[in-house]
Amino acid sequence: MRVTQSLSQTQFLAAINTLESNINQTQNQMGSGLQFTTAAQNPTAAGSVNNFNQALAQSQQYGTNATSAQTNLNTEDNALSQVQTQLQALRTLALEANSGTLTNSNRSAIATQAAQIQNSLLALANTQNGNGEYIFGGFAAQTQPFTLSATGATYNGDQGQRQVQIAAGQTVADGDNGNTVFNQIKTGNGTFAVSATAGNSGSGIVGATTVSNPAAYDGGTYSITFTAPGTYTVTEGAAATPVTTGTYTDGGTIAFNGVQVTLSGQPATGDSFTLAPSTNQSLFTTVQNLVSALQTGVSTPASSTSLNNSINAAINNIDQALSQSSNVRATIGGRLNSITTQQSVATSQQTQLQQSISNLQSLDFASAITTLDQQNTTLSAALQAFNLTQGLSLFKFL
Q: Are residue 88 and residue 173 in the same domain, yes or no?
């Protein structure tokens, strides 16, 4: 094939264009800091980078979810810590009010303080997070969960508990609904509660109550009735099935079917006390009952005994509320630990993914500079060679 001058020039220009294209590509790489910016430049590596980027984005979203859940749980834990502080203050007031040296005016003042604590507890139960959501509303996060009522407070939320995904196959509850935290509180000692019958005329006051033998306690409802001074009969259920009889001394313990009940004072003939399985009672009902009892005042020995029994019942229920809030806080701590652990795992995973992406796509600047120098040198030499060959002609040698 004959190589003409025109063909030679065409081939040379094509080679020059290729060199210039390579230089532009290297310069673009140095400008972006990436070995390639399109899949066409390196299809295999681009596919791997795309997969890594998807995994990284998913991990980062899990991280965002975890941070949000962590913030909500910390907000809830702080609110419950303040609830416990208020409950401890309320318990102290109840113990103070149980003194026989106080006047009705003194108790009325304590009732006012207890009502103020009730307002503080309501505000805490209506705590909002940074997004304006009520943390104790369940799924109804835009609805104020609690409003005061004549018997305590009404719950306006639902029973929901929002689950947040913090890793593949792992979710965590980012809060607790107010019904669980504030309403589902057991009365009495958590297993059963003992109450004095309205109309008792003696001075019998309910003291400590315990389950001495869980295997023997059948969860029934019992009546302890004093048939004569110092003599009692225990019956079970509406049928008044006889269980046991015995004698009582002030401060003594009445035991039967795996339970023990301590009484003080002197119950009158015909006085009775009911032992029944614990039920759920709202914290706000407990506070309201205490306020109402303190506001009623004392006018007779029987009313004084009734007030003592009401205050003792309130103290037991406050203790149960403290236990409930402690249990919820324990679960919050467990969830926060899970989040912290997963965040550590996610940080390590994201670092590895970013390193893998960098290994595939990030530019080695030292190598790129060397390549660019070589490409520029090659281009310069090629242009010089072209100029020389263009000047060559047979007429110069004639």
A: yes
